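batch_manifest entry 22 of 60
target: UPF0173 metal-dependent hydrolase BN1048_01072
source organism: Jeotgalicoccus saudimassiliensis
requested by: lab member K.T.
priority: normal
notes from requester: please return tokens only, no post-processing; we will run our own comparison against the previous entry in this batch. if the run fails, retry once and flag.
--- input ---
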Amino acid sequence: MTVKYHGHAVLSFNNNDTDVIIDPFINGNDLTDLTVDNVKADYIILTHGHNDHVGDTVEIAKNNNATVIAPVELAAYIESQGVENTVGMNVGGEGEYEFGKVKFTHAFHTSSFTDNDGTVHYTGEPMGLILTLGEKKVYVTGDTGLFGDMELIAKRNGPIDICFIPIGDHFTMGIDDAAYAVNELIKPTVVVPVHFNTFPPIKQDPEEFKNKVNTTCQILKPGEAAELS
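--- output ---
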């Protein structure tokens, strides 16, 4: 199977004939290859409440009658927007679905959603994801700074076949911290950099990151896929 990258931190995959999209920030994302009307999703998984991750969740969920899996406070907010099917989870919790298992992990960041009128909603803690897809383990760190328990997360849930990690700096870890996390803590078979070049403050050269990690690094263009062999 494959996991596709769609610019910024948007990921998607199909497993067991089930379509899943993660952090579907499409409108306002100049890097993405997607349009909201063309997204097929049975499930939407959210790591945290920032607008560049929640993105078009409500519209996509309503278009597809999709289930939204998210941190519990964020799931409650999404439900308040008229989405009928939500599952609220919390750090350390794991759920099994048609496509596989989802386990939420710590991430060190912030989390809130801002409405068009400027109203700010508390959306719980930010989180990362461990996805168990058949025999494969995928670690989506979410937006985060560097923290030592990444090693514990990888040991408890690994070995990690592929890790999606931010390198943009400014709002998340930058290249040097991300490379340290990959080389010393997570030690995945494959790593894919995300959350860079979408906005001026997070402009980065992914080739620099690739040169600093000691594992296979796949730099994906929007619409390209990392293959879980």
